[in-house]
Amino acid sequence: MNGTQIANCTFLAGNGSDAGAASTVAQLSDAGWTLNGTKAWITNGPEAEGSIVFATTDKSKKHKGISAFIVPQPIAGIINIYNLSLL
Q1: Domain boundary assignment for the chain
Q2: Minimal CA–CA distance to 24: which of 36, 33, 13, 15?
Q3: What is the CATH number of domain 6-72?
């Protein structure tokens, strides 16, 4: 990534922009981090070279257990369903 465009993946399917209600989870394994969840309304998603994805890493810490991940694009597992035409 050269940083020309980054997508913001804060909006959550069913939770809106409440980052404290993050239902996307991240788990650490020997192979690295695995993120599982759904995001909606991803700003600059189709054009971005990467995304900032917010995911819960420690539910016991509530909103303080949410971490941000920089995810390069394209990458397996990220699917762009459709684009919205904006003004």
Answers
A1: 6-72
A2: 36
A3: 2.40.110.10
CA atoms within 13 A on the CB side of 46: 7
CA 6 to chain centroid, in Å, comes to: 11
Which residue shows structure tokens 């909606």?
40
Peptide bond into 46 cis (omega under 30): no
Q: Are 19 and 55 in contact (CB under 8 A)?
A: no
* Residue 74: both structure tokens together: 């394209």
Write the burial class of residue 6 (CB in 10 Å: 0-12 exposed, 13-18 middle, 19+ buried): middle
Dihedral sign, CA of 3, 20, 27, 45? negative
pLDDT digits (tens, 9 = 90+) for 22-56: 678 899 999 999 998 877 777 777 778 888 888 89
